[in-house]
Each structure stands twice: as structure tokens, then as C-alpha cells.
Amino acid sequence: MRIGYAPGRCLRAWLTQLGYPASVLRQAGLVNAEGRDAFTRRIVFPLEGNLYGRSIRGSTPHMFLPGSKGGLYAWEQVRRCPQIILVEGLFDYAVLWQAGFHNVTCSMGNHLNARQFQQLCDGRRTVYLAFDSDSNQSGQQAAQWMSRRLWAQGVTTRRVSLPAGQDPNSFFVQGGDAHQFQELLEAAHP
Fold first, then answer.
1. Which residue range is the domain that position 150 belongs to?
2. In Å, what is the CA distance from 69 to each residue of 52, 59, 76, 94?
3. What sign for the dihedral angle of Cα 129, 131, 134, 137?
4. Cβ neighbours of residue 177 under 8 Å, at least 6 residues apart?
5. Structurally, how many domains does the chain consist of?
6. What is the 3-state secondary structure (H, E, C) of 39-72?
7. What is the pLDDT along the chain (190 residues), one digit of tens a residue?
8. How far apart are CA 5 and CA 40, in angstroms?
9. Residue 58 falls within a domain, yes or no?
10. What 3-state DSSP class applies to 189?
């Protein structure tokens, strides 16, 4: 999955040593205004034309470089699959992939950008929306809205009902297994 870890305090020095000026590093979003590494103590995922960092501690949990988040994560690996599991977060993606579900992709949020929507609409497939089961219903509402929107484009969709307050990552962290998740997929509804 090409996941990495950015400890901080080393990227700026290394890139400066390679000849990149501080102004270019700031403009790219790799260094903050104080001249420190922007991606410090973060799990890092390479994206199509961007970079995502998830803080392991800190006030800003999610960070992207400036610009678009790009298309669906790992799209080339799943685009020919007849059934695709779409999740909101990259940790959700990673835990499902680790559990053996290699037909999974991630939108990095519960709203698709135009490129991501087009990717899902390009071809005949079933899309399983395994969005977070949020207490405020935001994940469930986004899945319902997206299901209608994809259905209007001829894409078969199924909404996966996770236990209350869980996302795919927490489902597995709290003891769920691949067989139980497969049962959730089989019980998914339009």
C-alpha cells in the first residue's frame, strides 16, 4: 500500500540538501510557515497527485498537500472488479485490505469529487457503500444520497449497515472479522 511514516524534523533538511529552496517547500505544503516539516508524526499515504497524512497525535488529524485529493485511492487495482467496496477513510481501506478484501477503494471523505464520481460510473459494477455509522447520521445520509446519485447513472449500489458508531476500521479493531464483514456485505441493501 506504500504507507509510510513521517517522524518530522528530517524532510526539510533532506530536501534542502538536495537543492530545493525553502520557498518551494512552503509552496508545495511540505514545510509550514515556521519552516518546520508539515507532515510530522503522521502515517502517510501517497495519493494520485497528492499526499495524505494522518496524525498519530496532534490537533489536526487529517492533512493533504494543497490541491485536489485526486481520484479514488488505489483505483487502478480495483477498476475492473465487478464489485467494489467504497469506504470513507484510508484506515478503513487498510484494515479491509488486510482482512482480504482487495476490491476496496477509498474516497477520503463521504463526498465524492467529480473525478471520483466519474470513476465509479465508468463501467458496470456493484458499489458497496461501507460508510461510517455516525451518531449524527452524516455517514448514513451521505451513503443514501450517493446511492441515489450513482443509481441515476446506472450503477448498482448497496449500502452496508455497520454497527452503531462504527466505521470499518473500528469494526475490526473491536473484534470483527472478515467472515462477519462478509455477512454485512451480503445483508447490504439498495
1. 75-186
2. 8, 21, 16, 18
3. negative
4. 99
5. 2
6. CCCEEEEEECCEEEEEECCCCCCEEECCCCCCCC
7. 889 999 988 999 999 999 999 999 999 999 999 999 999 999 999 998 899 999 988 778 889 999 888 999 999 999 999 999 999 999 999 999 999 999 999 999 999 999 999 999 988 899 999 999 999 999 999 999 999 999 999 999 999 999 999 999 999 999 999 999 999 999 999 9
8. 9
9. yes
10. strand
Residue with cell 467496496: 85
Beta strands in the chain (DSSP E): 4-6, 42-47, 50-55, 62-64, 83-87, 104-106, 126-129, 156-159
- 84, 127 Cβ separation under 8 angstroms: yes
Check whether residue 105 and residue 54 sit in a common domain: no
121 and 166 inside one domain: yes
143 and 176 together in one domain:
yes
Under 8 Å between Cβ of 40 and 31: no
Whole-number Å distance between alpha carbons of 25 and 6: 15
Whole-prediction pTM: 0.91
DSSP 163: P
The interaxial angle of helices 114-121 and 138-152, nearest 10 deg, is 50
Return the C-alpha cell found at 130: 461501507
Alpha-carbon gap, residue 162 to 85, rounded angstroms: 13
